[in-house]
Amino acid sequence: MEEKIKLAETVMLIDAAYMNFVIADLKKNFERMLGRSLQEIDLSHLITYLALDASMSEGENQIQVLWVYDDRSSKLLHCHPSDLKEELNGVAFSNPLGEFSFASVPSAEMVSREDLYFDLFDIVADSTDVKKMIIVSFNEEYGDRLHLAMNKVTEKEIILFCMDEPKKEPHYQWEVLAYPLMQSLGIKGDELS
Known about the structure:
This protein is α/β, with parallel strands linked by helices. The chain has helices spanning 16-34, 43-53, 113-126, 139-152, 178-184, and strands at residues 10-15, 41-42, 61-69, 79-80, 92-95, 98-106, 132-136, 157-162, 173-176. Strand 5 (92-95) and strand 6 (98-106) form a beta hairpin. It is globular, with a radius of gyration of 16 Å. The model has no long low-confidence stretch (mean pLDDT 93).
């Protein structure tokens, strides 16, 4: 008999390689534009900002944060904590939104990071426990494939965080990833005017 994997009502599925790609690019460009160094990202703040932008409200929510990574993305750039294997696997933190529990899943030699991401996406999408999926994926690598997969999911609320508006009409919500990242890096709105 198959054992059922118990998932939280809200699951964040994050591609660490994409997060590193965007953080490095934003940090470099905004430091040049603002003429100052930006702070390192407190990961608990970033995850909280993502949850808030995904319309999570205060309460006793259980939110699972699943990180997918490969050898080149096992540490998050400009973040603390940053080590997905040693610091961000099997840990949790709580705040007024609820409890955020972390699990980090490495791609092995047998499966690519992209394929692992889709395997986990399918598990989360098929789970009757999950009501809300918060997606941070490497759209430049596999965005079209993900768009098709997300449009097939009808029983869950899906929020995609990306840098650009989806090219095709989505049947899911999307938010701009830059906003929670900019807030986490300490960029103030009045600096941008």
